[in-house]
Design a protein that fits this description.
single chain; alpha/beta; 3 domains; 8-stranded mixed barrel; 5-stranded mixed β-sheet; binds ligand C2E; binds calcium ion
Amino acid sequence: MKKNNDPESKRKKIIESALESLGVRPKAPTYVFVILLTLYLLGTVIVSITASKQEAVHIFGQSIAIYAFAGVFSAIANICVIFMAIYCGKKGYFTALALLIIQIPMIIRGVIASKNLNSLPGIFSNLLAIVAISVVYMNNKRLEKAYIGLRDHAVTDILTGLPNRFAFSTLLKDLIKRNEKFVLVWIDLNNFKGINDSMGFNTGNEVLKEVSARWKAIAKGGLTGTTDFITRIGGDEFGLIIRGYDSEEDAVNTIRRYEAALADQLTVDSCDLYITASFGYAEYPTDGTTTDVLGNCANAAMMEVKRAGSSNRILRFSPDLIKNDQSLETEKLLRDALDNDTMYYHLQPQYDISHKLRGFEALARMKDPEGNMISPAVFIPVAEKAGLVDLVDAAVFRKAALFFGGLLKKYNYDITLSVNVSVRHLMKHDFIDEIKNILNASGVAPEQIEIEITESIMIDSVDKALKVISELKALGIKIAIDDFGTGYSSLSYLNKFPANLLKIDKSFIDKMNSTDSSKQYVAAIVSIGHIMGFDVIAEGVEEDDQLDTLRTVGCDFIQGYIWGRPLPAEEADRIVAQSVRQ
Ligand code: C2E
Ligand code: CA
Ligand code: CA
């Protein structure tokens, strides 16, 4: 099978028409050119007829010489010519130029033949028009260049140079409009987050670039026997559109070529990495007839590949995948829990290193209708995607703060309530007001509240986040950097960050005692935290030897099953009562 057209130029054409429909570049259709040319020719004919006529006509009692009309029609003809140069591109400009130049000897000949100098100024008006259209043309060319830049920018992913999501959906819509059979493949790199977390964003970016370059070479080189269009949809997600295949097997063979392109190791920053990806696909029109449905189908198939974790990483969509789609089910349960206000919380105690109570972290809890707990590790990401996480955060904060207010009154004991706030929530315009309302309603002083923000997600919008965080600090609320070490731990960034507490992620505590360097790493985090003026808490401490090490390296606080699991409120009450007695 041969490639029927070059996808690159195809996509540019599509985007061009999209930009034109947005009015970014006004270019008139051909019929406008034809009308202007006809009007011009008509005007010129009238001019040549009227110019030599010596008779006069009578209008409103005035006698006007017919040759005087020649001036009017000549002006109309020139306006047509100027419009041509402005709106009809290169073709319009050169036609206009030719017409204006041809007129000059004609005018001179007319002057000589009629021995009438009246039309001589016409030459100057022609020269003026030539200058005017040339200026307009040059200016249009400059705009055109900017336009081409804009067009390429609008359809290209800056990091990888691949076509972007916009180009992807534009081509999809176009294919659907033309009712052309194609396969849509949704691709997601496996464990990309792990690379980002462990090796940093820059390495992650290099990986994306290298993978993109390999795939681009396949698509461009026409190596697969099908017509392929590979795009970066965002993050580590890519979209592939396959056309010009005979059977499904052809399409799958094409996908295999893309999979095989990852087989060779990738060397980034002198580290050898092995990358794999998950591929889910759906076919138009068999599996769906709109871009959304097809995208969801291919995505569901890709998710199933990830979930199954088998060595076969290519899967076609089938309707029963949707039925198993856990996240839709979870989203429904979430909405119910929020509507019925059944979202609740557990409190996990935090202690200083000598086992004195520091306070509690409130953790969201939710049950399904059978009463089984659903882990927040499952429902929080769903809430984030569905735009519900602010409601979850607020429900947990409101309920936990009310309880905590009562606890403080009852025992008059100096402890802190930590709550988790998702960055999506933090960015909401009324976030600060919401916090103030909860503080007022619960009677808890801001100094006894701590807000935990996950380190990795703040990077995207540091400035806005920092502004909100400064406002929280100004209120007296404490700030903790959650899951520290899993994100982008740049020192300069940390330095800017007005936190009070650094929470070392559980993953570091888990492996802390397995190698000497892991222990050194935790020791380094504690030192850095202290240098920055933060207290440091270790999360997920389960064993005595972890506790010993944390003591040696000077960690300030401990949170973990070793001294307390997340508990219902009444048990937290008992813990406080015990602490007061001690
Ligand atoms: P996180 O904020 O890092 O919370 C700590 C998690 O580690 C909790 O899991 C806690 O139960 C668990 N944990 C604490 N100590 C130990 C230990 O010694 N061993 C083990 N194996 N686990 C320990 P949980 O409650 O499942 O929460 C998971 C995540 O869900 C939280 O991680 C947090 O990111 C998110 N989350 C929970 N509640 C909320 C909330 O109200 N709002 C938001 N935005 N996120 C929440
Ligand atoms: Ca937390
Ligand atoms: Ca954490």
